[in-house]
Amino acid sequence: MADPALMAQGDTLDHPLARLLVSDQARYASQTGPCVTSEPTDAGPIWQQSTDKQASNHAKDGLYGLDHVELSAGATGFMNVGLWVPRPDIDETRAVSSNEGTVSGGECQPLVRACERMVCAVAHAAGVQRGTRVLDCGYGLGDQCLLLATKFGCGVIGLTKSPVQAAVARDRVAALCLSNRVVLAEGDAVTIDVAWPALAPSPDWTPDVVLSIDSAYHYQTRARFFAAAHAALTSASSSPARPGRLALADLIVPSTFATRTLFSWIPALPVANLGSIDDYVLHLDRAGFEAIEVQDVTDAVFPGLTTYLCAFPGARKWRVAGWMWWAFWKALAARYVIVSATVKKSV
Ligand SMILES: C[S@@+](CC[C@H](N)C(=O)[O-])C[C@H]1O[C@@H](n2cnc3c(N)ncnc32)[C@H](O)[C@@H]1O
User: Fold this and answer.
1) Residue 249 has what pLDDT?
2) Region labeled Disordered — which residues (predicted)?
3) How far is residue 220's CA from residue 229's CA, in Å, rounded to a whole number?
4) Rounded distance from Cα 170 to ligand 1 centre (Å)
5) CATH topology of domain 4-343
6) How far is CA 104 from CA 20, 171, 204, 268, in A?
7) In which region does residue 283 sit, left (phi positive, over 0), alpha (psi from -120 to 50) or beta (all else)?
8) Residue 214 CB–ligand 1 contact under 6 Å
9) Nearest-atom index, ligand 1, CA of 143
């Protein structure tokens, strides 16, 4: 399994994913306690499974793969839109890059900081504390799970749709010997209510919080996910004295002729998820949530994100992605929100 000392030798560090595991040790190992021998994974590290070093870099499951690791020079695998403006109300001291300076590739620090700040903001909205048990949906390469486990002291069960991303995320967890606190699986977020019990590390493990960071606009449908999150949080063994919470960082795109037409061509963006902020709140209410709070963070997301991507010196597709986000923001009137809600006591 991943041995950072061995990976630092020879040309293995040419592989962005190998660099990622080395970076993980610098970022998180001090929080994980002794990790003498990494835990075995089913098939070994993903870059060793590939005969072509570049192959896993291009591996994709639909929309998402591994190549976005380039965006932070292999320092992290974050792929959320980022919160690019500091928030005085959010405790960022748990963000690794803001207080420990361990992010390699100085020019990528703004991206990593913005992504970490987004995780801190969603965790804050969810009321995450030390010991909180989290169901994390759409975790990508698992960066947010590592942050929640090591810096916030959470137990995490994660479900994400991309098998190749899940495989890399599990490698990262194993390399940090975190498998007792972080259990990551592949699966669809809309099945979180039926999926989590089989992943629970102990029979008394029940979720306090469901999170979805920059992912729910993909779900088929987001309303189904709200219902599944509610069911997970109200499972028989959950404590009625401590109503469960749901928190999301999410994209809201109004339903217009242009957006309905565009989304009907893109399977990863279901037309059913189009709608206003009021529609979003209505869906949460119908699913059984109350105390719904919506923070419109559009101006803290899109200017920073589009500026970073449009000026990115690497692969051209990232600059194209920057212009795509700019079009969502300016031409399609998309908003970006951080949303939190509590399970209704009366339900
Ligand atoms: C923009 S990426 C964000 C990844 C991660 N949250 C982060 O911030 O780095 C969206 C993620 O949602 C996942 N995803 C898309 N549809 C999903 C679904 N139906 N269920 C679970 N995960 C899904 C993708 O695989 C991808 O990892």
Assistant:
1) 98
2) 32-54
3) 14
4) 15
5) Rossmann fold (3.40.50)
6) 10, 20, 39, 32
7) alpha
8) yes
9) 9
